[in-house]
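User: I'm putting together a small comparison set for a docking exercise, and I want a reference complex before I start. The sequence is below, and the ligand is aspartic acid. Could you produce the 3D structure with the ligand included, as structure tokens?
Assistant: Of course. I'll restate your input first, then give the structure tokens for the complex.
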Amino acid sequence: MKTTLSLGSGRSSLVGMVALVLFLGLLLHGSAGADEGMYPLSELSRLNLAAAGLKVTAADIFDPAHGGLVDAIVKIGGCTGSLISPEGLVITNHHCAFGVIQLASTPEKDYIRDGFLASGSSTELPAQGLTIRITESYTDVSAEVLGALSDTMKFSERSKAVSRKIKDIVAKAETDNPGKRAEVSEMFPGKSYVLFIYTFLRDVRAVYVPPRSVGEFGGEFDNWVWPRHTGDFAFMRAYVAPDGSPADYSPNNVPYRPKKFLRVNPGVVEDGDKVFILGYPGRTFRHRSSRYLSYEEDVRMPYIADLYRWEISVMESAGEEDPPAAIKTAARIKSLSNVMKNYRSKLEGMKRMDLVKARRDDDRALQQFIAADPSLSPEYGRVLRDLEGIYNSMRESADYEMTLRYMRSSVTMIGTALMLLDAAEELRKPDMERESEFMERNLAATRTGLAQSLKNYVEGVDQVFLREFFLDASELGDAHRIAPIDTLIGTSNIESKTDEFIAEAYPATRLGDSAFVMSVFGLSADTLKSFNDPFLHLALQLRPLYRALSDTQAERDGALTKLDGEYADARSRFLRKDFIPDANGTIRLTYGSIRGYSPADALYAGPITTIKGVIEKTTGREPFNTPAKVVELYKKRDFGRLASRKLNTLPVCLLYNLDTTGGNSGSPLLNAAGELVGVNFDRAYGATINDFAWDESYSRSIAVDIRYVLWMTAKVAGAEYLTSEMGVGAID
Ligand code: ASP
């Protein structure tokens, strides 16, 4: 919550008094060290960092002229990381490096199980497709973007006009800043847009990734849970061409020399210490209406949690009999499990807090506030009703739309065939008119993503998924049939007809062959048709349905962008509170304290776990199978100088009340002086609800303590060359 509360002018003194009391309340609350807010760089100068207990200033954090901490904070894939040496060494999470080691693993050389440690730069593992971006500058371009709109436009035209304008701004910015990457991010829906210029590095390599028994200790049991004992960290390195410019992987590339890198501080971190995080949080939805929340609670999240639970069980049983399949499906299982448990905890939290009812009550009061003020009703009077209309129509077609969407993302053969047809069409358009994933600037990443999905393809799993989606499709209501599937399997004996299709199509298709798919990527639709491939044939029939779906989506997105923006505006006036924009993958600051909490009545959870807890949880069986070396060093109490004097043992994880979400994975946890003391990787179970509603009582995030990282690296893995590269000195 921002402490800059602007009082509405011309209001009665009573309102002013109430606001003042509230304001003082906020200040007092703020002084306890906890603040809602993922602050964008534009807010830094307005924050009172000293009052929050931080010793760094806004200029220490971001200073394009002289360099600031932001120069050391990278977005790495969907995660965050920090530069921690002059040689481009980056620390992030084990779960952020998981895809890289999974793709490089085989049953004989299983980096997932055993971990990966490069003996020197020549043996580091290229992380194909993984990129790093560093924020260089930002500029408000709202006026330019919104200037592309006119009142007479339909919603779908508005969406298109905005995305076209954004492409123009990006193209110009990339021409003006050669070698950099530009992105325009929507801050408040339909209201404000910011152009970011990024340094964009394309050669990233894995350096040290601990074994799963450390990096994912506790597995899904402990995921999203406190107390935690997971060493969720990994080291990567960024490379550039010998002249220092960003380049694709080449053995001739050299380590990236950053403008700034973080100082690693293995010193004391204690309960109550002030800390902050700089990172790239992904998405939050705190300024949405009750209509959005109830759709999430009733429709979208339960559907996905259920689907993923089932898909995970299919992949797990495939892996039990087939070790290569276990490796191929490992990353997908991990990511689906992560989402599934996140949604489960959100759904529980929504029920526990009766969140939809609370927001519905707010919305009712908001509606009355709007109705009571003639200057507001023309602009905002219909917002809630219009939102209701959209969510009602989404509910009505949800089964149909979800079946289509998730059939495409789950069944690799259907997804691949549709992707080839999309490429055939899009690549024939001028670059600026293409869907973003097919624009020249994104094409290499799209191709890499496709090749990687085929590398992980398991035919048996795909068949089971296809079967299930066909059977689901057969149960859709009359108003929403998927005609091409009806044509294939009819309306009677659907199971045996589906099985017949599977028995014919899978042996006949060539789309499981990555080399073939990559060689035909970009060919025309006519050429693709001439292959007579059963999945290309099916995708040709399905395509008009997907097109119609994306038109509906564009129309809806246009409407929702406008309405969500108006809703947030009206709500902000009603609450007389400036909002901080929801997370959107751009760099943010959040601050607070190392702090325990009460997860349930009569329980208190302290904020620091130790190696004693690792040993207590160890059963010897996955996911609680601690490496023997860890147990041995623990027994000898061989922690070098890394043990906490106060705890008299080695700290493992830290808990704090900062405002984080997905995407903050891998973010540096910084002490008041801006030194790295931990690596953020998760939230407590009751905290995931903070994506919808933040509250200090339950919003808790989790980091691995840097002392555990250094101990694991130097003492357990024997990679002292890394700790000395970080300038930490002997661990002894
Ligand atoms: N572990 C998390 C993730 O999956 C980080 C978080 O959401 O807090 O992204």
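The first strand starts at residue 39 and ends at 40. The chain has 26 helices and 19 strands.
User: Thanks, that's exactly what I needed.
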